[in-house]
Amino acid sequence: MKHIPFSRRKFLKTAALGTAAVGIPTIIPAHAFGANDRVRVAVIGVNGRGKDHISGFSKLENVEVATLCDVDNVVLQERAADFEKNHKKKVKTEQDLRKVYEDKDIDAVSIATPNHWHALAAIWACQAGKDVYVEKPACHNIYEGRKLVEAATKYNRIVQHGVQLRSSVAIQEAIKHLRDGLIGNVYMARALIFKWRPDIGNQGPSAVPAGLNWDLWQGPAQAREFSKNYVHYNWHWFWEYGNGDIGNQGIHETDLAMWGLNVGLPEEITSTGGKFLWNDCKETPETLTSSYIYPKQKKIIEVEVRPWMTNKEDGVEVGNLFYGDKGYMVINGYNDYKTYLGRERTPGPARKEGGDHYKNFVDAVRAQDKKLLNGPVETAHMAASLAHLGNISYRLGRTLKFDPEKETFIGDKQANTMLTRKYRAPFVVPDKV
């Protein structure tokens, strides 16, 4: 894997507060955005998170959701009908995202496909001259994340990672408190992912449903027979398509942990867990405990995934706890933080207030200024990579040593093979973007 020299330390410093080619033609939009220019957006993947993308962009002034795209034509037409009913206007539909990228009138694409498509869809969009809002995780493996960073740089595109907490007024304030030393020397982040994940059974192979382009749905992944266990949500629990809950809900928490501690990728990773509840066909672990060590900075990130019947930790089911030598901070969800100071745990500053991540993206698109992004592409790569590192340690069953500058494991050929995947033509993430 080619390493692009990039100062993560410089990037982390400037972005610390978060305020700041197969068949795909290179198309640079003919116009430059002005303050009053309409931004035309295509939403790709409209079954799950895509519904929120449609709603979020539709609410913004002078933004047009112009095209909806999904490989499942039944879902696509349902969503188009809903859109036309709610907005009293027609919307274009496409099943193949490559046709969307050929449309010169589309300024930006918003990607809400399954994980295994995120990076390639975003890279192709960059190559086609489109700005990109991509759901978490931005990549299915570490190699893809680096390629996406390279593509965004090479084609000078605006790429926003879909982690809404980056635009939360409360969370931005919380990070500033951490930087300013409110709780002292911040040495630990504990990321919590306690979600209700039931038994999915084992439905086995079946006929492909009418309207679904199964070949296109699989895209970069190796071909399998269709199963209802994959479509439309439970693909998260299969390695070909998803990354388990640490790479699902957990990306919000890995991103926040790294942001709060002001660190990049770790040097040592230990991850253990397994399936202890259900005898179903999930491949990814139900329960996962991962530790990430930063020996030079004397910091640690702990990530805890629990699927069922668990206590909360200081009221948190999904969020982060930060520990310093003068107190600790509790971040609950995406928009709420509290602090407790000293041995008596005296309540300190607290706030609950959200933000608009879609608007932040559109503002950056209009200005064509990456510095305006709250969730820029490098943070996307690092947040996803932290989850991928934990999964690799779990799957190999051992502690791993990692070089965060070269983005490779040290003296471990087997682990290094898991930095990427085998791609299925023509859906190949290119080495040279």
TrEMBL record:
The residue ranges of the Gfo/Idh/MocA-like oxidoreductase N-terminal domain are 39-162
Q: Which domain of life is it from?
A: Bacteria
GO MF annotation, one: nucleotide binding
List each copy of the Gfo/Idh/MocA-like oxidoreductase bacterial type C-terminal domain by range. Answer: 202-255, 357-428
- What Gene3D superfamilies does UniProt report for this protein, alphabetically? Dihydrodipicolinate Reductase, domain 2 (3.30.360.10), NAD(P)-binding Rossmann-like Domain (3.40.50.720)
UniProt protein name: Gfo/Idh/MocA family oxidoreductase
Q: Which organism is it from?
A: Runella rosea
